[in-house]
Fold these 2 entries.
Entry 1:
Amino acid sequence: MSVDRIKRIFMFVAMLLASNSGIWAQDQVECHLKADFVSDYIWRGQDLGNVSLQPELSVAWKGLSLAAWGSVGLSRSSDAREIDLTLTYETGGLSFGIVDYWSEGNDSRYFFYKYGTGHAFEGFISYNFGPVSASWQTYFAGNDYQEDDGEYQSSNDKRAYSSYFGLSASFRLATCDWEAEVGFVPWKSATYEVSSFNVTNLSLRATKAIQISQSFELPLFGQVIANPASQHFYFVFGFTLQAL
């Protein structure tokens, strides 16, 4: 092969790499780290704890992401520690994946997966239509069983397949970012403490970033949450620390 041909091949490869540099940049793995401090830990209308620290670490590549999220109570020793692992794939407005919820409230052993485990596994699918998004979540394995007269009987208990359907809308108003959500539980579930179809979550959240310096801002948020099924009402305040 002549030197001139080698040069032409080299120049062609160099031009090809340069023209695709933007694509290569998009293929890089991204890492995100943040932590929320909340006055109460309210999840889908359920009271799960008092003042809490909730860190999150995630990595993403193209449409695939893996996140680790945790919660630890800061004011009440009875609040159970929680660690959640979420695997998500997103394409366009469609997202789906699996969540492994673990709480030491049922069993303090993390690597224990038999009957009575602290783990519960959930599949989810959601679609973002723009300002409005819809999601469906269902437990399919782990600690999620039907109750008989208020008590679990044995490892032969029927699976509850506890499910949750949520509709949320995001908008900008009066210098704040707002998010409203309504959540339904379609059938009996001990997890959500309902015996039939019920609305368990009506919430409205406002977030506003406070500029601390030219390179640092502190997002503050307030949220009102109503659970019509349990007749409970909550007001949550918090802030987020995020690594840029």
Entry 2:
Amino acid sequence: MTATDPALTALSQGWCALSLLHGRIEAHIERALQSGHGLSVREYSLLDVLSRQHSGPGGHLQMKQVADGVVLSQSATTRLVTRLEDRGLLTRYLCDTDRRGIYTDVTESGQELLAAARPTNDSALREALDQAARNPELAPLVRAVEELRVPA
């Protein structure tokens, strides 16, 4: 394939459209979460990922799993955890079975903020998708997102 290959050009255009859709959705949600709850999209995502942990074997996520869940590097995730811990939204403690392991849990305050922010996130997502669906270039991507069924 050459740089002028039509298949490559179409792939590139599709990627640009997907990137545009993601950027618009994230910016819309960011504004809503910041103004309504003082949370960034990344902070909300981190609280959401950590809130889905459970006690017991395999219930707590390792920092790499958390980083993958919020699509950040491990060092950026650690900095984000520290910021939320400083705000009293998260707590860290040593693993009972492996003293090298550190767990991060959402505090009661963090759970309350997440519960309050979840409808804002969901509403902003719906608004952003509805707005993007009016753009002919983005409409097929919106339909694809709406048809996704991710296993729980």
